[in-house]
Amino acid sequence: DYSCTVSSCLKVHMRKHSGEKPYKCTDCDYSCTMASSLKLHMRTHSGEKPYKCTECDYSCRRLGLLKEHILRHKGLKPYKCSECDFSCTVSSSLKVHLRKHSGEKPFKCTECDYKCAIYSNLKLHMRIHSSDKPYKCTDCDYSSARLGNLKEHILKHSGEMPYKCNECNYSSTSSSNLKTHMRTHSGEKPYKCNECDYSCARLGVLKEHILRHSDLKPYKCTDCDYSSARL
């Protein structure tokens, strides 16, 4: 039911149906339906960032990005969630946030059944299949697919444990370990078995529990025929 007042707009719109992309990049295989889109794309090759912030040294390729950046200086968050009190300066951030409420996970792995709400998470996940671990420790041969994991690993060399429990003297190099530890105080057991009423605080413990229902014993002794569901 699309309609417009200018014939050229209709011509561009019809390309969505035909798949025609007459504007092609000379530096890569990018193509698009609009000359203005190609012009913006070419800035990725030239590095041109004509839109500049008057408050700081930020610059960008798109006017829309500059407008959103300026909102941060003003402290304005015009994009608000209708389901909770979340608000943000960037419309795309609200779009991603709304997937938490809808459960939508549009980014799917082509190698397994993994899917997620954020493209960058899929990109990180794909390193599991490719064995790409670009983040490397300078003190040992450890490498990781995630920068955050490398940062936590480096703390092990320094002995620093910045994540501290406010209920006891527990501390850790990992924020996720602290989060799991806090469940010992709160009693929270978010991982639940769908075969019985068992629940626990750690995903790994639930996986071991599920093996009991399946009779699988993947941990085997190399000296005899003993095997177990638990390591």
Automatic annotation (TrEMBL):
<keyword id="KW-0479">Metal-binding</keyword>
<keyword id="KW-0862">Zinc</keyword>
<dbReference type="InterPro" id="IPR013087">
    <property type="entry name" value="Znf_C2H2_type"/>
</dbReference>
<keyword id="KW-0539">Nucleus</keyword>
<dbReference type="GO" id="GO:0005654">
    <property type="term" value="C:nucleoplasm"/>
</dbReference>
<dbReference type="Pfam" id="PF00096">
    <property type="entry name" value="zf-C2H2"/>
</dbReference>
<feature type="domain" description="C2H2-type">
    <location>
        <begin position="135"/>
        <end position="162"/>
    </location>
</feature>
<dbReference type="Pfam" id="PF13909">
    <property type="entry name" value="zf-H2C2_5"/>
</dbReference>
<feature type="domain" description="C2H2-type">
    <location>
        <begin position="191"/>
        <end position="218"/>
    </location>
</feature>
<dbReference type="GO" id="GO:0008270">
    <property type="term" value="F:zinc ion binding"/>
</dbReference>
<feature type="domain" description="C2H2-type">
    <location>
        <begin position="163"/>
        <end position="190"/>
    </location>
</feature>
<keyword id="KW-0863">Zinc-finger</keyword>
<protein>
    <recommendedName>
        <fullName>C2H2-type domain-containing protein</fullName>
    </recommendedName>
</protein>
<dbReference type="GO" id="GO:0000978">
    <property type="term" value="F:RNA polymerase II cis-regulatory region sequence-specific DNA binding"/>
</dbReference>
<dbReference type="InterPro" id="IPR056438">
    <property type="entry name" value="Znf-C2H2_CTCF"/>
</dbReference>
<feature type="domain" description="C2H2-type">
    <location>
        <begin position="51"/>
        <end position="78"/>
    </location>
</feature>
<keyword id="KW-0677">Repeat</keyword>
<dbReference type="GO" id="GO:0001227">
    <property type="term" value="F:DNA-binding transcription repressor activity, RNA polymerase II-specific"/>
</dbReference>
<dbReference type="InterPro" id="IPR036236">
    <property type="entry name" value="Znf_C2H2_sf"/>
</dbReference>
<dbReference type="Pfam" id="PF23611">
    <property type="entry name" value="zf-C2H2_16"/>
</dbReference>
<keyword id="KW-0804">Transcription</keyword>
<feature type="domain" description="C2H2-type">
    <location>
        <begin position="107"/>
        <end position="134"/>
    </location>
</feature>
<feature type="domain" description="C2H2-type">
    <location>
        <begin position="23"/>
        <end position="50"/>
    </location>
</feature>
<keyword id="KW-0805">Transcription regulation</keyword>
<feature type="domain" description="C2H2-type">
    <location>
        <begin position="79"/>
        <end position="106"/>
    </location>
</feature>
